Amino acid sequence: MFTALSEELTGVLNRLRGRGVLSEGDVTDALREIRRHLLEADVSFEVTRGFVERVREQAIGALEVKAVSPGQQVTKLVHDELARMLGATEQDLAANVAARHGVPLEFASVGPTVVLLVGLQGSGKTTTAAKLARRLKLEQKAPALVAADVYRPAATEQLQQLGQQIGVPVLGNRETGNVVKLVQDALREAESERARAVIVDTAGRLQIDSEMMDELRAVKDAVKPREILLVADGMTGQDAVRIAKGFHDGVGLTGVILTKLDGDTRGGAALSIHGVTGVPIKYVGVGEKTDALEPFDPVRMAGRILGQGDVVALVEKAAANVDAEAAKRLEQKVRSKKGMDLQDFLVALKQMQNMGPLKQVLGLLPGINAKALKGVSLDDKRLKHVEAIVLSMTPEERADPSVLKGNRKLRIAKGAGRPVQEVNRLLEQFQQMRKLSKFMKRM
After folding, report:
1. What tens digit of pLDDT does each residue of 345-394 get?
2. Is the domain covering 113-306 a CATH 3.40.50.300 domain?
């Protein structure tokens, strides 16, 4: 996420932190570099100019304070201004990190809450509708989906398949040619099924046009949605900002969901949308699976961009994906006299895989910036290879790896479809891990 921008900004700030004394010239040069990197990342010119001016004004005054190193002071100023660019308030900056979870959706006190998803074709709107429904289901909000795209072939079928995957009903009669009537009928059906949240997946276009806006305004007037969320492709750069402004002027957005932020996006859209429209980014899509939707917290995101990690997101990811009972049994096994065996190692491996791609998980750790991750070989396929090797062993072999000799290793390698050298390497690494766990237990 924001790999290129993160690498450039952390490089500039690391050079500042390495100096004991900073002059106004040093700050000006650093801000000139930061300005260039922001513009290269597709941040709008007006937003970039305002950011640099605010940081310069505060940084010159901060140089007079001797209690904290000037490099650290400038880093803090850049972090806070980045957070403000992303939508943070002064209360957000002052609050405890663990207490913040972004800008939540607003729910109606009576009747189902209608969430209207809008956006251009190809922005990932239908997949995002399913991701949001899955998240609301986990929050006990009893969601339902409405397939209101009557123009794109197989749009309804796609949403129905996604709805079946996550166990959420999909409403809407495609035979109804009138989109407004389709949504009204679906809303009445959702009320009879006691749905608390109704997510309407509207039709996208290749570009914003008057016909599209007229249809959205008609749906808005008919069902009075509590939330109107733009689903914008984070890889489109400044086009995403222009699209957001067009939709905001047309129907009045209440928030934005940025998709495809798991790739090496330049990040300009996220850093510009709030400044241009004033509406908050509420969620970000960080993968293709239905669980790859995260609440957007501007302060924590600023920390990620500057290589400070996001421990809260890491804890939330672990809590959502790690089996607490299995983790407890694993801990007891590690603490026991015998220690863990390869069966326990397999359990731990699966728990780690459930948390998502390794690169994404490691990126949440403080001090692990984009540059550090670039030099590390992180192939998630290797975890699958390890799993295949362990699964090719008998229960007795997993419990006591010392019985694994030449013939057995050859059989395991053939069963896993991997070379014998990988089997030997896995056993060596496992023995090293057992020694380390015993040492830590003594400590």
Report:
1. 777 777 766 666 666 666 555 555 555 555 555 556 777 888 889 889 99
2. yes
